[in-house]
Design a protein that fits this description.
Largest sheet: 9 strands, mixed
Distance between the termini: 51 Å
Number of helices: 11
Number of strands: 11
């Protein structure tokens, strides 16, 4: 059984005014039209909802019970209309966004903050993960957009927009023996100078780990000795690196934040520029919210 929104509004007006004629005037309808609507509602319910009298109408017990449900239905309908208006005005909706731990430091995070600030009805589902996992979720339709780093030579099937970038550098604690060695040599370090020392690197399937191992292999050197395997450059991982003679391959923004604990080694071989990309499915239909975020991060 369904009731038209306008019929429920008419029913509520008759309740509020206690009189069909006065309700009709308030609704700017003719009294016969209002009477017809009330009869239609009563027929649908299957019982009288009003007691009629010479001076107006009052609710029956069934009418009082129906009024409670009618109010809820009207409120739900009005809330649905409000949400629809907000979505049309781009003030509401759901944006499913993925970021890596590295790109959470990018302008994308600030753009999301601005988006939420200017659209109080917006909901953001944020997933932090590895680039490969986020790209897979994107292609499977579980995410709308993702912000991921892109390395030289890396290939993706997703559509891409460059939104920024940074550098990856080999770093160690300031008192690491390699800094003294670089001073004695009076020049920058070579990759073979790093061989005696252990590393803190992510898992073998990560792009950063592959770049380090490939650089060693290209120079005919043995694979770097991984002492600490980490998923992300978390504070705990960097605290361990900063307290031991380990090497790490980290973004420049992290060194700026931890300048007292970690410093870049004078090594040109592994200095790598990477880009931050906003990626989407190649065939994606861009919603207004997706477009708004793109404009904020790319502007």
């Amino acid at each position: 059984m369904g009731f038209a929104y306008t019929d429920l509004l008419c029913f509520q007006a008759v309740v509020a005014h206690g009189h069909v004629g006065r309700a009709a005037t308030a609704l700017q309808l003719g009294q016969p039209a209002v009477s017809k609507i009330i009869r239609r509602v009563e027929d649908a319910v299957g019982t009288p909802l009003f007691q009629r009298g010479a001076h107006g109408v009052v609710l029956t017990g069934s009418g009082q019970l129906f009024l409670e449900s009618a109010r809820q239905l009207v409120q739900q309908h009005e809330e649905t209309l409000r949400v629809a208006r907000d979505i049309q005005a781009q003030h509401a909706g759901l944006l499913r966004l993925g970021m890596t731990l590295a790109t959470s430091e990018s302008r994308a995070a600030r753009a999301v903050s601005e988006l939420i600030r200017n659209r109080p009805g917006l909901r953001v589902l944020l997933e932090i993960g590895k680039s490969d996992d986020l790209e897979r979720a994107l292609l499977q339709g579980r995410l709308d957009l993702a912000v991921v780093p892109s390395y030289p030579g890396q290939v993706t099937t997703c559509a891409q927009i460059v939104i920024g970038g940074d550098e990856l550098l080999v770093a160690a604690r300031p008192r690491h023996p390699l800094f003294a060695q670089a001073g004695r040599q009076g020049a920058g370090l070579r990759l073979q100078d790093l061989q005696p020392y252990g590393w803190a690197l992510p898992s073998r399937d990560s792009a950063a780990r592959k770049m380090v191992e490939q650089a060693f292999a290209d120079r005919g050197l043995g694979a770097p000795m991984v002492v600490l395997e980490i998923e992300h450059n978390t504070d705990a991982a960097m605290d361990i690196v900063g307290g031991a003679d380990l090497l790490c391959f980290v973004p420049s923004y992290l060194l700026q934040r931890r300048s007292e604990q970690l410093q870049a080694l004078p090594l040109a071989d592994l200095r790598t520029r990477r880009h931050w990309m906003l990626i989407s499915r190649p065939d994606a239909t861009w919603s207004p919210l997706m477009t708004a975020l793109r404009d904020l991060v790319a502007g």
